[in-house]
Amino acid sequence: MGKSDPLDAAAIRRAVLDLEESQLRAPRRDEGTRAGLRNLSAARNQLTRERTVNVNALLVLLRVHDLGIDARKPLVQAQITTISRWR
Which of the 8 DSSP states describes residue 86? Predict the structure, then answer.
């Protein structure tokens, strides 16, 4: 996302108009480390969403069925670990 402030845009336009094309910065390429970090960030966001969906589903099960765990508050990791060991 670029700048949308009209004063900044005007200042940038004035600064760039006097430059030769060879003096302008090359746009960032979407490859290498930059692309890798973007992919890792997207994967982490997806995993976070999936975890939230799974914890919410677990909370629904605990609230519908009396399984001995108080589901009135958010679950802590220790409770999730305990439940994951149930067979």
Answer: -
